[in-house]
Amino acid sequence: MPAQPEQPAIRRIIHIDMDAFYASVEQRDNPELRGKPVAVGGSRARGVVAAASYEARVYGVRSAMASVTAIRQCPELIFVKPRFDVYKAVSAQIRAVFADYTPLIEPLSLDEAYLDVTENRAGLPSATDMARQIKAKIREATGLTASAGVSYNKFLAKLASDHQKPDGLFVIKPADGPRFVETLLVGQFHGIGRVTAQKMNALGIFTGLDLRQQSVAFLQRHFGKAGQYYYHIARGIDDRPVNPDRVRKSVGSENTFETDLHELPELLDGLHPLADEVWQYCQGRGIRGRTVTVKIKFADFRQITRSRTLLSAVTSQVVLAQVAGELLQSVLPVSQGIRLLGVSLSGLNTEETTGSGQLTLFGD
């Protein structure tokens, strides 16, 4: 009798997502903020919320929301300047906890990561037990809570970690994956943004079950290459491995100013510290890139970018600042004030082989 082919092992994936990370760090370090609505970033008059505490989220305050909108939602909102050096240090503590269990760690940001624990250093057969231990160790090391999702692939593990926040632990077993997916709105799927969800809705696709009823050909006709991905996730299928060698795509820094800027000297004064911050980050990690991009947001929130790709990698902060300054000057004079500037470097050739797809260093 011929030997039966071996079935591929079912992977065990944990997705860890810290709860309101930046805001929780601030509340941990300042007892006066505990139990109160807190926004990290921005100010009462200007800027954008980088993170909101759960007390603020009750009022509808969310990250990336304009500060003026957040204040309308929650007049008692307390704004706190971000401390990214502290957040990075806490993130390193969290990463050290992960490393006790597996070397297969794919960070998505300072506060979020996938872990493949199919084979693990703790020798535990249960990914759920590992997730429970990881949550407890993070709390012991940092005083912060994390939510964990456990499943057999990345897509479902991330959905699971969102399911019982904060301080949650939710498991989606292989037998339950397709049934769990079919009940969700497509806008809840990781990888389906607002515009794509609206397009799906226009086609009569509102839930995972609706999505599952579409053919590959139909989805590819309307959504291109992503159509095949949507076809599979509607069935709870996601073969993407946890990738500890994910290469960073860009490094950026931005700042929203207290008052709108109009003239070149004051704009350059605002631009150069951003270039400095990007360069210092790149210098410390051996990162080099060829494409410089300047982001400009006007007083009416209209946003534009200007980019230039050099023949060789940027070799100094002086070059980075010079190219960024030239890109900025290319849009001057302006008919209205500029409320935000950003500088980023992409086209990276990096010695740093782990990290998120993009690092953004927010300013306020």
UniProtKB/TrEMBL annotation:
The active site is at 112. Its cofactor is Mg(2+). One of its GO terms (biological process) is SOS response. Mg(2+) binds at residues 17, 111. Its main location: cytoplasm. The record marks 22 as: Substrate discrimination. It is an enzyme of class 2 (transferase). It comes from the Bacteria. It catalyses: DNA(n) + a 2'-deoxyribonucleoside 5'-triphosphate = DNA(n+1) + diphosphate. One of its GO terms (cellular component) is cytosol. Binds 2 magnesium ions per subunit. Keywords: Cytoplasm, DNA damage, DNA repair, DNA replication, DNA-binding, DNA-directed DNA polymerase, Magnesium, Metal-binding, Mutator protein, Nucleotidyltransferase, Transferase. Its EC number is 2.7.7.7. InterPro entries: DNA/RNA_pol_sf, DNA_pol_Y-fam_lit_finger_sf, DNA_pol_Y-fam_little_finger, DNA_polymerase-Y, DNApol_IV, IMS_HHH_1, Rev_trsase/Diguanyl_cyclase, UmuC. It is found in: Cytoplasm. One of its GO terms (molecular function) is damaged DNA binding. HAMAP family: DNApol_IV. Belongs to the DNA polymerase type-Y family. Poorly processive, error-prone DNA polymerase involved in untargeted mutagenesis. Copies undamaged DNA at stalled replication forks, which arise in vivo from mismatched or misaligned primer ends. These misaligned primers can be extended by PolIV. Exhibits no 3'-5' exonuclease (proofreading) activity. May be involved in translesional synthesis, in conjunction with the beta clamp from PolIII. Monomer. This is DNA polymerase IV. The gene is dinB.
